[in-house]
C-alpha cells in the first residue's frame, strides 16, 4: 500500500512539473512572437516595428542608388543637385535605421527589392529629358510612399526609439517631396 501511494505521488509530481514547464515554454514562445522585448517599455517593439525598419531601409537604399544615377546621368543641374541630396540624406537616415536594426537583431539587406531593381534598371536605360522626367516621377511616388510609412510609424509604432526616428525624419522626407514637385513644375513650364 505504501508503495502504491508513493508511486501515485511521484506520478503526480512529475505530471505537475511537466505541465508547468510546458506552460512556461508556451508563455516564452508567445512573448518572443509578439515582441522582441518587453511590451510595456515599448523599447524593441512588435513585428510592425521590424517591418517599418525593413521597408524604410529598402526605400532608402533605392533612393541612394537612384540619386547616384541622377548625379551621373542627368544634364539638368537641379536634378544632379537633387540626386546628391538623395544620396546624402538617405545615407544619414539609413545609418540610423541600420544601427537600430543591429541593436534589435534584425537582419538587413543592401539589395533592392525585385520591384525597386526593375524600376532602377528601367531608369538606368534612359537618357536626357526622358531620364529626368522618369526620375522625377519615381521620386514623387517613392517619397509619397515613404512619408506615409514614416507617418504610420510615428503615430502607431510601439518602439519609442523608432517612433522618434520616424518623426525626426519626416520633415526631411516632406522637404524632398516639395523640392521634387517644384522641379517637376519647373520642367513642365519649360515645355
Polypeptide structure, described:
This protein has 191 residues and is an all-alpha fold. The protein has two domains: 1-34; 39-189, Ferritin, core subunit, four-helix bundle (Ferritin, Up-down Bundle), CATH 1.20.1260. Helix content is 83%, strand content 0%. It contains six helices and no strands. Helix 2 packs parallel to helix 4 (114-124) and helix 5 runs antiparallel to helix 6 (160-189). It is elongated and about 50 Å long. The model is unreliable at 6-19 and 24-43 (pLDDT under 50).
Quick overview of this protein structure:
This protein has 191 residues and is mainly alpha-helical. It contains six helices and no strands.
CATH architecture of the largest domain: Up-down Bundle
Radius of gyration over C-alpha positions, nearest whole angstrom: 25 Å
User: What is the share of helical residues?
Assistant: over 70%
Number of self-contained structural domains: 2
What letter string, H or E per element, gives the SSE order?
A: HHHHHH
Overall shape: it is elongated
Largest sheet entry: none
| CATH topology descriptor of the largest domain | Ferritin
Poorly predicted runs are 6-19, 24-43
Instruction: Compute the average pLDDT.
Output: 84
Q: What oligomeric state do these chains adopt? A: single chain
End-to-end gap: 103 Å
Helical/strand content category: mainly alpha
Q: What proportion strand? A: under 5%
Q: How many distinct beta strands?
A: 0
Amino acid at each position: 500500500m505504501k508503495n502504491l501511494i508513493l508511486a501515485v505521488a511521484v506520478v503526480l509530481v512529475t505530471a505537475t512539473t511537466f505541465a508547468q514547464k510546458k506552460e512556461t515554454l508556451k508563455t516564452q514562445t508567445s512573448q518572443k512572437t509578439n515582441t522582441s522585448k518587453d511590451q510595456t517599455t515599448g523599447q524593441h517593439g512588435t513585428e510592425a516595428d521590424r517591418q517599418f525598419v525593413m521597408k524604410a531601409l529598402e526605400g532608402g537604399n533605392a533612393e541612394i542608388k537612384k540619386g547616384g544615377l541622377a548625379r551621373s546621368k542627368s544634364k539638368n543641374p537641379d536634378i544632379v543637385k537633387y540626386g546628391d541630396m538623395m544620396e546624402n540624406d538617405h545615407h544619414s537616415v539609413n545609418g540610423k535605421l541600420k544601427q537600430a536594426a543591429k541593436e534589435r537583431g534584425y537582419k538587413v539587406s543592401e539589395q533592392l527589392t525585385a520591384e525597386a531593381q526593375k524600376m532602377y534598371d528601367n531608369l538606368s536605360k534612359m537618357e536626357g529629358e526622358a531620364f529626368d522626367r522618369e526620375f522625377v516621377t519615381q521620386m514623387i511616388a517613392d517619397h509619397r510612399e515613404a512619408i506615409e510609412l514614416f507617418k504610420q510609424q510615428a503615430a502607431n509604432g510601439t518602439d519609442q526609439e523608432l517612433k522618434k526616428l520616424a518623426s525626426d525624419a519626416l520633415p526631411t522626407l516632406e522637404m524632398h517631396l516639395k523640392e521634387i514637385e517644384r522641379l517637376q513644375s519647373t520642367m513642365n513650364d519649360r515645355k
